[in-house]
């Protein structure tokens, strides 16, 4: 009899190239251990992440979506992360409206020097997604 494997959520991570993407690279080169559940997609700025990207990720089977960028005040485009923060608040409301738990979405601020923080963000997100199980509500809604 084989032991049951723990549920491994699939995460799509939109990472600002100036900060969080470099932070994830630092976690890698520093050999910090963290779950390999996140598929990174590098974006120029969190302000460039359209809510449609997030819905599309859920629609294509993501169990969680992470958007991570420069700390507030450090955006290379000055106000991109302020814009992102406002959009992401609306995304959480939209997810609630369509029946997808808003806890499946997370936003974080991780600089290029914070490899350990990036690893912790992903670890915490995986731990928080596991009790929710697979996300299939958005896919089901699309197929009706
Ligand atoms: S450049 Fe990193 S969030 Fe805008």
Key structural traits:
144 residues; alpha/beta; Rossmann fold; 4-stranded parallel beta sheet; binds FE2/S2 (inorganic) cluster
Overview of this structure, please?
The chain is an alpha/beta fold. It has a single domain, classed as 3-Layer(aba) Sandwich (Rossmann fold). 42% of the residues lie in helices and 16% in strands. The chain is built from five helices and four strands; from the N terminus they run E-H-E-H-E-H-E-H-H. A four-stranded parallel sheet has the order 2-1-3-4, with helices on both faces. Helix 1 crosses helix 4 (115-129). The protein is flat and about 40 Å long. The mean pLDDT is 93. It binds FE2/S2 (inorganic) cluster (FES). FE2/S2 (inorganic) cluster binds at residues 16, 18-19, 45-47, 69-70, 75-77, 80-81.
CATH class: Alpha Beta
User: How many individual β-strands?
Assistant: 4
The amount of beta strand, in percent, is 15-25%
Helical proportion? 40-55%
For this structure, the CATH topology is Rossmann fold
Secondary-structure content class:
alpha/beta
Summarize it.
This protein has one domain (11-131): 3-Layer(aba) Sandwich (Rossmann fold). Helices cover 42% and strands 16% of the residues.
